[in-house]
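Reviewers asked in the last cycle whether our approach scales beyond single polypeptides. To address this, we selected a multi-component target totalling 575 residues and predicted its structure end to end. The input consisted of the following lines:
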Amino acid sequence: MTAASAFDAAGTAGDDHASGLRRDQWRERMGLAGLAVPALLLVTVTMLVPLGWLFGLSFLDDSGALSLEHYRRMLAEPSYGRTFRTTFEISFVTTLICILLGYPLAYFLSQLPRRAANLCMIAVLLPFWTSLLVRTYAWLVLLQRSGLINTWGMKLGLWSEPLQLVHNMGGTLIGMVHIMLPFMVLPLYGAMRAIDRNLLRAAASLGSTPVHGFWTVFFPLSLPGLAAGAALVFVLCLGFYVTPAMLGGGKVTMVSNRIANDIELFFNWGAASALGVVLLAITLVVLVLAARLSRGAGLFGAGH
Amino acid sequence: MGWLDRPASDTQISHGARLWLYALGVLVLAFLAIPTLIVIPMSFSQSQYLEFPPREWSLRWYEAYFSSSSWMAATATSFKAGFCTALLATPMGTLAAYGLHAGRLRFAGLAILALLTPTIVPVILVGIALFYAYVQLKMVNSFVGIVLAHTMLAVPIVMLIVGSALKSFDLDQERVARSLGATRTQAFLQVTAPQIGFALVTSAILSFLTSFDEVVIALFVSGGDNATLTRMMFLALRDQIDPTIAAISTLMIVITSLLLAVSQLFGKSES
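The resulting structure, written as structure tokens, was:
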């Protein structure tokens, strides 16, 4: 019996002493919850209130009257549609590439002996630990016209003119994949390590080939990790700003970059905040869907 | 090549049959690690154009960095902001995690959700919302403004780390201490805190790094005398590829690695 239920049981007996104890306990628990107040206050003052304030702006027109003008314009102007399409395309393709590269890598790591895997993990965590700017800078240096990849590519005779590798969609995608890949590998690796090897041994002893065993036993069990990683990468991509701003060279405009431009170049708070409302709404929808899906995948008895 | 024919796992697939997996794994690992590492030798190049391997070695870009008063000022701001963030976020996040864990109130879940929102909301939105609020409050480009923003970003991280440490900690130990006459605070400081010390140190280090690495919010709310290092790097890189940044990047890699090594060492001595 826990302390709380002991108090409850005593309380139903109608004992004055017990109700006093219960009041004490309630007061203590309120006091404990009160410890969260400074943090809650900070988040409220520096995020929730400014965000609400900003979002309020999206419902005002230029004269300050209530209107849906900014949302109407967002629907009417095709350039907004293009920005959203770019954002979804980049997020989707980045997630897909991260799955294609991350799944084999996580599988490879999960098959290694622990110590070797931990050693290889350093390579996965290194970019995770290094400043986002440093990594984006590294790609800028590697992909530029006189960069390492162009120099070596021409030296090896793969191409004769320096290729335009950066300040475009391709460069942005490379940078994004590099930054997002660890977010895919870590949950996948965790899920794969948790899979009971005996299940595969059982499948093999019942006559399944290694490939068949992988697809019918291992792969379904790794799905929750895959779902978690994919959702994380997709959501992080949706709100990404730094890499498209630097590697896109002004040619790749994701929603975040458009919001920043609206503020920095045009001081158009209404348009920026309307975009912000839509971006946050999409992010939340994706998160809720992902939570649903991964719970569904969990029904197959996988993970924990 | 007997090694290739030997079974690689319980399913009897041979190493040879999945040589492609090893090749792919190593390639992806290289893709992850090499771009970051290649900046280090490049930063020691004499040339204007970053080359690998450098034809002539020199420390000229380090000199350029250390002799530039604007880079130095930005570095100092970033370090100060990082320390203040760690100093504020660690106790705030720890108190919240402890209170919500030990209090077991019905609305704790809601409070945790509210405290985690900074990790969900795209950072660009936080940046411009804060910019808007700070304009009204005349706090744009203020040091306090940047520290508050970074602390808000770091609090959820502290909460997650300390929260998970508390989950594996038996709070009955505190009850024992209190039954022996310790106050709640004494019990926490003398019994709980030393046992979750690793989580506290890790939280402080990650709070520092969160602030030190943050770009987007700093872009909007820091500036003038209080520009952070990352803000200056971002703006410099948007215009051109400046080799000074290779030197700065190398130093940042070293600092981050050192800090994380320290937190790992703490982890070792705990377990």
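The two ends of chain A are 27 Å apart (CA to CA). We regard this as preliminary and will revisit it once experimental data from Aim 1 are available.
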